[in-house]
Amino acid sequence: MNEYKYKSNYSKDEKLRESLYPLFNTVFGISEGTFRDFYSRGFWDPTYTPYSFFSEDYAVANVSTFVFSIILDGELHEAAGFQSVMTHPHHRKKGLMNTLMDKALEEIDKNCNLSFLVTSEPSLYKKFGYRTINEFYYVKKYKHPGSPSGDLQGIDVFDSQGLNRLQKLFIENVPSSSVFYPVDYVHPFYLNMYNPHLRKLVYHSTSLDVLIMYEVVDNKLELFDVIGNTLPTLDQICSLIPEPFNEVHLFFNPDKFNMAFNIVEYDSPDKLMVRGDLKLSEHHLKLPIFAEF
């Protein structure tokens, strides 16, 4: 590996940070301009720590971590997230990713007993001690004729007024679940706002002063999360939805709603994985979709 230079924890170094962007473009097809915009808007997570190998002043392999708080069974834990795991096609099969994972885990394990990642290739991470979490969503019959007089308005994170409102609600947010919930996932949320489809699913209610992330598909309300200083009842939330539906599909644990739901396994090519002492069999868990990283 003498041809590579190893660097880490350089997010504040503009030249090095921007030398990472082309790798995102090559591996994931995310434009360099997206990350420049992301950083310039203040969306960058200050705990984001890249571990990278460089060749000729450009990153060719990378693993990044960030730190976040998560509620598990009513208790707050500090956890790490792994993301931006990528190797340039011309530099693969040289053990670069394995070396970077080892370096990152050595640092993370000093402070966090749990770490999570989301991947479409879970087999790559089993050797590092990661296990797949089978995720579930919750289904309930619910006849709703539609509420065309509801006060939901789309909210745009790229508009200063919308961003200020969103930031305030995230700061004040009461977790939607006490079973499994990332307390402040605003930075993954920002990144997900660059997905045009997800951006259309975020609404603000003036009457309840909450963000509601949802869509109605085939007469089913898919409710992804609610962000605000109180968690409304399910009836209050549904009363705002202009479209009619016959079922509610809830994509976070419904323990705070005190209602019975059917449990359905969540089928997705992207798998949530965990490393550490998390008893997976005790609960049916779901990471909120807008918190995925």
UniProtKB/TrEMBL annotation:
Spell out the InterPro entries in the cross-references. Answer: Acyl_CoA_acyltransferase (IPR016181), GNAT_dom (IPR000182)
Question: Where's the N-acetyltransferase domain?
Answer: 14-164
Q: For this protein, what is any one GO molecular function term?
A: acyltransferase activity, transferring groups other than amino-acyl groups
Which species is the source of this protein? Halobacillus litoralis
Looking at the record's lineage, which domain of life comes first?
A: Bacteria
Protein name from the UniProt record: N-acetyltransferase domain-containing protein
Organism classification, top ranks? Bacteria, Bacillati, Bacillota, Bacilli, Bacillales
